[in-house]
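Fold sample X.
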Amino acid sequence: MFTVSDEWKRTYPGACAGVLAMSGVTNPKSNPALEQKKRELEQELRRLFKDPADLKSNQAIQAYRDYYKRFKKSYHVHHQLESVIFKGKSLPSVASLVEAMFIAELRNMLLTAGHDRDALRPPLRLDVATGNETYVRLNGEEQLLKAGDMMIRDSEGVISSVIYGPDKRTRISPETTRVLFTTYVAPGIGEQSVHEHLKTLETTVKMIAPEAKVDLAQVYAA
């Protein structure tokens, strides 16, 4: 179902990728347990980080900042955390499966994308962009990838990249019952953090759909 290219391993030694496939999920507009979980996470983050410099020096944040810097970009999860922790913003209210992903992403600070498995066309492959690939982003705009960026494709085309995020074709929808989460992990973070992140994702999704089943939970290392 999922492979990684030799080029990815050569280009990003020390990087990892996490893949979590689940079935029997639901995607309601809201979920009371998730709302409570979001409030608890906001409070926890504000307790952990009292100063922007502490967040900036976090190992995961620093690893992603280094990755994004080579493309002259900044890590958006870092900015989201700053808004929640230091500006008092709340986590956004969106469809429940996406909220579950956001909760895990902000808790563990690891970049994650979600897809409807029934829209995917296996096999999936993690690779490095040449700079010639294009895909349609969530906002409906066609995007040319940056050479050297990590990307994942299925048999029809690119479904996500680190710099530009997930595609529109395979996005999570209200009808999603089988979901795939993929986590891009920059060098310097390590496999154990990815395993813990996948477990956080699984646990959070099961708050929405307690009977959901894990079909694949795998960490790949360069």
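Fold sample Y, listed below.
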Amino acid sequence: MPRDHGSFPDRARVALLLIDVINALDFPGSSSLLEQALPMAKRLAVLKRRAKAAGVPSIYVNDNFGRWKSDFQHIVRHCTSKSAQGAAISKLLRPRSNDYFVLKPMHSGFYSTTLEVLLEYLHVETLILTGIATNICVLFTADDAYMRDYTLYVPRDCVAANTAKENTSALDQMKLILKADIRPSEQIDCRKIARAASRNGLNGVERKRADQRL
């Protein structure tokens, strides 16, 4: 029996996760990350528009910056203000009214958040992970997603770390260990990925949940 009571209008096998892209970048050493992340954000903005056209929902998985307040709009306002070093990125990727968001207290988007519940209601089985930083929050989220049987795409030009070396190292690990597809964003065909996921019927995530209900 459906349990969402109309609260989750979207139904999609694929979801685009934007990890920590709404970010003031006001921590030590963030200048080098900003240098890497700004060109990444421009490519991600294009991918997000293509995902929307294909009916793929966008989910902002964003740090709460230790404030423990579930007010994402406050975070958006702060990170797009003139005083925020990361304002250019935050403005470029500012969420729309029909986007979803999940606030996280730690590195992984799954740790102590509602992300898994949201993905279950949306019937998602494939995740396109993007954002910052590749070797920290993106990697931790990918680890947890892999353990939950999600199929992973991590477009290598839509993630960023402090250095190109750290970025490449994390991507290589996700490809080798987590079986992530790291093709560039221009080769990501959201419609094709969604059709393939639908043809697969029950995915690993749904099979596990079905088994638990027996």
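Sample Y note: The longest strand covers residues 126-132.
Also: The domain at 14-213 is CATH 3.40.50.850 (Rossmann fold).
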